[in-house]
Design a protein that fits this description.
This protein is α/β, with parallel strands linked by helices and 341 residues long. Helix content is 47%, strand content 11%. The chain has one domain: Alpha-Beta Barrel (TIM Barrel), CATH 3.20.20.210. The protein contains 15 helices and nine strands. Helix 13 links the parallel strand 7 and strand 8. The longest helix is centred in the middle third of the chain and has 25 residues. It starts with a helix and ends with a helix. The structure holds coproporphyrinogen III. The site of coproporphyrinogen III has 22 residues, from loops.
Length: 341
Amino acid sequence: MNTRFLDACRGLPVDRTPVWLMRQAGRYLPEYRRIRSACSFLELCKSPELAAEVTIQPVDILGVDAAILFSDILTPIEPMGLELDFVPGPVFENPVRTLADVEALRMPVMEQDVPYVLETIRILRCELAGRVPLIGFGGAPFTLACYMVEGKGSKDFATIKKMIYCAPEIYRALMETVAEMLVAYLGAQVEAGAQAIQIFDTWGGILSPSDYERYVRPYTARVISGLAGCGVPIIHFVKGAGTMLETVREAGGDVVGLDWHISLGKARETLGPGVPVQGNLDPTVLFGPKSLIEAEVQRILRENDGRPGHIFNLGHGILPETPPENAKFMVECVHRLSAKG
Ligand code: CP3
């Protein structure tokens, strides 16, 4: 088994820098589009054999050092009572706006309500055995609450911000419910066989650092401490965390995910050499010529300066029009340029 990824999560030395890509299973791959052409995205998430197949595609095609479960951060919200659709962005028909809406949320029973997620993990552990580790994931409470309250993506997230400032008791009740759900959901993924967990806080950077500390971090910290003792590394990725890395670090977890707005070298100096990091190539660089891709990989490796505990990744998800051969070339560059000896 290739243990580079898990070793780097623990801050241990590795023979080559491990690499995987956020959203590595998806529309930029023709092999994904072929399977996806016969069903909807949600149907694909709910079909364990197919979800396992698209999870493995980037492992075979790109040569990455970890697989990430094919699902979505919003999967466990549907059984809480919010009707979910993808058009292609996520939409909830009945968003959460009042205390009564929060109180009406159901706490899912994982084996009954999201059996397909756990079954996909079990299939993957069999099919991946001896190859690469499997990452499970969930959204951070705040990012999930953003979609639950707004009902869809948003430019300014004014509806949830208004809830925070004008009706904090509704916001807090919602965040407590979502955090409780996540401890059970992510714990069930580990029990089913996930070997690491990534928490995605895509929208954690839209608040001021002091509001992040007050309204976001305590709930993420609650999820991470609820998973203490589960025995697998936890990666915490907050998009836009550059100006508040130490604050984000306080939430706990093993690895800090970085977007591309902060230099990796500066992030490592801020966090200290004992804190493993993951990142942080701008996904758009994969549209550039190979010479640029190689130079950018080299720059990031140089910024890391040989410190153990670096997992190479993009600073956010791969974009749908990315040429797959460029993603594959990036993975090769990481391995070749970081090879020891
Ligand atoms: O990384 C992986 O390969 C695993 C699968 C994965 C998906 N979504 C599949 C997906 C993961 C880890 C996610 C996380 C996710 N989902 C996040 C956090 C990370 C991030 O990108 O910020 C968020 C915010 C979501 C919510 C979501 N799901 C959005 C906003 C969209 C639409 C965006 C778009 O590109 O159309 C989705 C749909 C989605 N999730 C797709 C995939 C492959 C596209 C579905 C399709 O095939 O049409």
